[in-house]
Description:
By secondary structure, this protein is of the alpha+beta class. The protein contains 7 helices and 4 strands; from the N terminus they run ααααβααβββα. The protein has a 4-stranded mixed sheet with strand order 2-1-3-4, covered by helices on one side. A hairpin with a 2-residue loop joins strand 3 (128-130) and strand 4 (133-135). It starts with a helix and ends in a 5-residue tail after the last helix.
Amino acid sequence: MTMREKIEEVAARYPDQRSAIMPALVIAQRQHGHLPGPVLEEVADILGVERIWVYELATFYTLFHTEPVGMFHLQLCDNLSCMLRRSEDLLMHLEEVLGVKKGGTTPDGLFTLSTVECLGACEMAPVMQVGDDYHGDLDIARVDMLLDRLRAEVGQATGADLAAAAPPGE
């Protein structure tokens, strides 16, 4: 099913096409990885809504990315509950070990580091979202273990892909 077909299917559930913008953006981002201008315009055209309405939502919510992000998007909460539990120390540590500042992507494209206003998980403070997963009660040791696990996932996937691609007997 094409992106257009998926968006049209979802949009049919809404009496007002403007209400379908967010689910349409989720579909578009899953297909393209991020939402550059031409993709935002295509979503608006598919829904038959004003382009500015699509741009407004895509640039307001941290869920959407108008620029490419790394394979793992690390979104560290910097709201009050997380700050009180030392999320600023975690941000400094992440910047140091990844070699990028907040908003940057590692040269290998593996990690993008961002802060977000609130992840709505204060009971787990400090908390970080990676993709769709939340990781809470973080400290430097837990962050390092998480980074190691994410790197290992990529290594395992790469190793499996290489093994599958290798000719028999090699």
